[in-house]
Amino acid sequence: MAPGYYKIVVKAEQLARFSLPGQFCQISILGVFLRRPLSIAGAASGKLKFIYKVAGAGTQILSQMKKGGKIEALGPLGAGYPLEAAKNKTPVLIAGGSGIASLSFLAQKLIKPGIIFFGAKNKAELVNVSYFKKLGWEIVVATEDASAGVKGYITSACANHFKKNACSGMVIFACGPSLMLKKVAELARAHKIEGYSSLEEKMACGTGICQGCAVSIKGEYKRACTDGPVFNLNDVNW
Amino acid sequence: MKPNCSTTIAGLKLKNPVLVSSGTFGYGDEISDLCDVASLGAIVTKTITIRPKAGNPPPRIAEAASGVLNTIGLQNVGAAKFVGDKLPLLRKLNVPLIVSIAGHSEKEYLSVIEALSGEKGIAAIELNLSCPNLQEKIVCHDEKLIREVIKGARKRINIPLIAKLSPQLTDIAATALIALQAGAQALSLVNTFPAMAIDVRTWKPKLSTVTGGLSGPAIKPLALRAVWEVYRRQRCQIIGGGGINSGEDAIEFLLAGAAAVSVGTASFIDPNAAPRIAREIEEYMKRYKIKSIADMVGMVKS
Fold this sequence. Notes:
heterodimer; A: alpha/beta; Elongation Factor Tu (Ef-tu), domain 3; Rossmann fold; 2 domains; seven-stranded mixed beta sheet; five-stranded antiparallel beta sheet; 32% strand; B: alpha/beta; TIM Barrel; eight-stranded parallel beta barrel
């Protein structure tokens, strides 16, 4: 899709039928030991879509796969975005980098389009924007090198939006780097907006049995793979 | 000819020799929808301490070639919550239950034993003498402490005691003897190997506690050697494990002297690893016309 960004579309009848936005699959990759957790970016017509960024050895090998190949996926795993929180509210999606993946699936499932804030390093890495356009979402982008949209971090654009608009009818769904999510949580708290974030942590099993992917929620360690990856913005100890 | 896959270990008769290792199967109910738990020989629970433990900060996991480094830090709900919330669920699984316990002192080990001593449904206790991810030293490097913990446990509970040892011992067979003489009916060999990894993009260690425990196929030859060494010198009951990912891997441990095998990291890759391995052991026995598990235990040719 862009340098380092890849899309996978696979025929997966059962997975497509039962997956929910915010969930992920554990993908087996030949050449590395552990499975890799990839966010589900879409599920329709018996097909599952993943969007991911090459981060290391596993995703590097995965990105070399050719069309017509097979992948082994365990899923759907995790607690997804609470869709009912968007009822009668305007959804505000905030994506950083490859966080666009899970939020793409969320947009697919939300009945009413809202506004998406998407920040990336440069224009090329603003992947999948056209999908949101097709669904009728209002789109605000930011790039660190000013090659598209606002220059800098997307959270500045978010801050402006919350300052200039009545926040009571909004609900936030955010996915991206921790620093971005931390800033989003601060904004949400300041403007009293309900919000949810999908967290990421190094994972071994992905199924809740090893307690490797601990994230601090309300002063306790929870499992990002099973208790999350989605948590209320207010509950996360950044 | 249907082979007899049952085995006896620490006085427990198990329907097959495959156990799931402590710390790799949660409290037994997390993946009961992904794994055929009822087909397991036994479950060893996450290690319980007297007070709940939060565990170590993330990152707790790093990948190694053919293995995993972990520094979970014994995150557990504590003895009281275990008895109240987890034990009732575990009993429903209808699989022999071995509860793993640990403490920071002899007194702490014994308080957990006391908390469990009235409870029904526990087949045996595994004493975790060997976790490498706590601030204090690994207990099994202290002979006096091993003796006191096992002797003290023996006085307070009637069910079998299994001592799980660290592989990082100068003479594992000698430590094994201490544990057996103090009253352990069987040994669990081995816990994870102290190890580490460094991120060359940030120059930081990959684990929050710098070092952690290595498990997975990378350690199989090392764990196997430990089992063989202890068996040939002590001829005792051993639950052997370390990197087992197939029936044939398990057979190697049986031949080296284990009467039962422990499957851990494999479950991270395949939630059904342990039941699959139990089936593969049976298939091996059918193929090579082996009548019973006992026909293989310790039978590696010398």
